[in-house]
Amino acid sequence: MADVSEEQQRDQSTPAAPAAGPQPEPIRFFGTTWVDHSGGYALRRAALAAGSLLAAAAGAYLLRFAYEGLEIGNVGPFLSISVIVLFAIATAIAFAKTWESFGRRPRPSSDEAALKGLKTIGFIGSLAAYFLRSLSEAPGEKLRRTEYEQAVAEFGRRRSARTGNPAARRPKRRK
Question: Using CB atoms within 10 A of its CB, is residue 91 exposed (0-12), middle (13-18) or buried (19+)?
Fold first, then answer.
C-alpha cells in the first residue's frame, strides 16, 4: 500500500474554494454537465430517453393488466369506460404539466402540490414528456441555461462597474 504524505491528505480533505460568479444549477441525472455537454452528456440523454420510454411502455402494460382485471371481474361497461377516461385525462394533464415545467418555474402559490396525485395517476404522460424532451435536450436545460446566462451577464455587469479600491475614494463634497 502506498504511503500518502500529510500534505496530499490535507489537499484532499480541504474543500475547494468557491468559484467567483454564479454557479449553474444541477439537473437530475445530468448534474452540471449540461453547461458544456461534457462528462457523458449525450449518453445520459440517450439513456434517459430510452429509460423513460421503457418505463412508459411497462406502465401501459401494467395498466392493461388492471383493465383486464376489470373485465374478468365483469364490473360493467360504465366502470370500464370510466377507468379508461380517468387514466386518459390524468395522462394528458400530467403530460401538459410536466412539459410546462421544463419551460418555466412554478409560481410559489401554484397548484402543483394539488396536482401531485393526478400526475401520479397519469405517470405515463410524465414519462412521455421526459422522453420527448430528452430527444432534443436535457429536461429543463433550456430554462436553466437561460437563467444561468442571465446571471453570468448580470455578474459581469456588476463586476465591470466596480473600479478601484472603495476605501481609497475621497468623500463626496457636500453642497
Answer: buried
